[in-house]
Amino acid sequence: MRIVCLVKNNQPLGATIKRHEITGDITVARVIHGGLADRSGLLYAGDKLVEVNGVSVDGLEPEQVINILALSQGTIMFKLIPVSDRPVSNQTTMYVRAMADYWPLQDPAIPCADAGLPFKKGEILQIVDQNDALWWQARKVSDLSACAGLIPSNHLLKRKQREFWWTQPFQPHFCLKSSLFFIGTKSRANQQSCYARCPSSCCTAFAAPYEEVVRYQRHPGDRNRLIVLVGPAGVGVNELRRRLIASNPREFQSAVPHTTRVQKSYEMNGREYHYVSKETFENMVYSHRMLEYGEYKGYLYGTSIDAVRAVLDEGKICVIDLEPHGIQIARTHELKPYIIFIKPSSISCMRQTRKNARIITDYYVNMKFKEEDLQEMEDSAKKMEAQFGQFFDQVIVNDNLQEASAQLLSAVHHAQDEPQWVPAIWICSDTQT
Ligand SMILES: Nc1ncnc2c1ncn2[C@@H]1O[C@H](COP(=O)(O)OP(=O)(O)OP(=O)(O)O)[C@@H](O)[C@H]1O
């Protein structure tokens, strides 16, 4: 038997308790890393509680013990029987990118909602404890001084996603996955209706909920990272890309697309397009050499990995725009893409900034933005963020064009010169080759 005194001072104890199903004993289920109990070094997972502040816990439910603890202030005295085999922590810290949102206060299954760590997709988490098969402990890298919180384990979060997915009403929704795209336009006609339970890559429900990441610093001699711009139709992706390349064509370049259409007299093979036969194009598609492709007026157009590689091999920074479903294909250890989401500003701001701007859609070319175009841009941006936000390394709001261009330039240099979180598999692949 041991007596342990902890001074609470309005902070949580930093431990959870449970009741043994057979013996009814109340034991410490886990000690939260960096919390009061952990810092004291006096409480361990497995310790059996006998008394709290002189009150016997015999026959009490865990909730009743928690109540006693919640009502106690200042010094709390535990009488306990220490666990005989203290768990030896041989855990290595792991970093992951959250691929889903998690709100502990909305999760009835969490052992202690107050000890939960809420996170949003795309956030980088430091996992400090995976001892429990269901509940891990983690911190956000943006706040490493905080004490850890509970998060569902990989396995548990996957299960939750699956349950959530199947309990959703069966409703058709618009996804941005399409087999068609039109050069220069991301048209409404492209958006094919699919079903919320479709098994395609656009549905992230069954994807791994955490992606292991590592800190990566590009060596000056290494190839540049591919810069991918993503955004809803008309937001200004092409405009920003064009301006970036024009600012220094010796540093920045786009990838030359492939097409099956006939070369025009003033065009040069490899400058405007690579002109190839339909058979060659289709072979490139089947051998996964196209990042994205589509058909326009009976001809195929696409951006190939070879074309991107050619720019990178010249030592330049390759800047392309992609439909969001192409992100997954581009995410390889070879290209190490840095994904920048170009986000529209509010509709009221766009009414001002887009007054004299012109757009191209399926239905009209070089027309002024209409109110519904702005609305559609906003809706489409929301969908993209909801579905693909976890992949965005940077978000730039394209309000003032000059400012957005300056932000893009700085983001592109940041991507090449500063350390970044990248999927661990990209770096493991490097060391294997
Ligand atoms: N911040 C801005 N302020 C004013 N006009 C802008 C701004 N950004 C882009 N534009 C203008 O909006 C129009 C559409 O831009 P852009 O063609 O680059 O869109 P996009 O995102 O590439 O979409 P799409 O692929 O459909 O062409 C262009 O006329 C462009 O000059």
TrEMBL record:
Ranges in a coiled coil: 367-418
Keywords for this protein: Coiled coil, SH3 domain
Taxonomic superkingdom: Eukaryota
GO CC annotations on file: actin cytoskeleton; adherens junction; cytosol; protein-containing complex
Keyword Cytoplasm recorded: no
PROSITE patterns for the chain: GUANYLATE_KINASE_1, GUANYLATE_KINASE_2, PDZ, SH3
Span of domain Guanylate kinase-like: 224-413
Gene3D superfamilies with a match to the protein in the record: 2.30.42.10, P-loop containing nucleotide triphosphate hydrolases, SH3 Domains
One Pfam family per UniProt: PDZ
Residue ranges of every copy of the SH3 domain listed in the record: 91-161
UniProt domain PDZ: residue ranges: 3-84
InterPro entries the record matches: GK/Ca_channel_bsu, Guanylate_kin-like_dom, Guanylate_kinase_CS, MAGUK, MPP4_SH3, P-loop_NTPase, PDZ, PDZ_sf
Family in the record: Belongs to the MAGUK family.
Official protein name in the record: MAGUK p55 scaffold protein 4
Native species: Coturnix japonica (Japanese quail)
Classification of source organism: Eukaryota, Metazoa, Chordata, Craniata, Vertebrata
Gene: MPP4
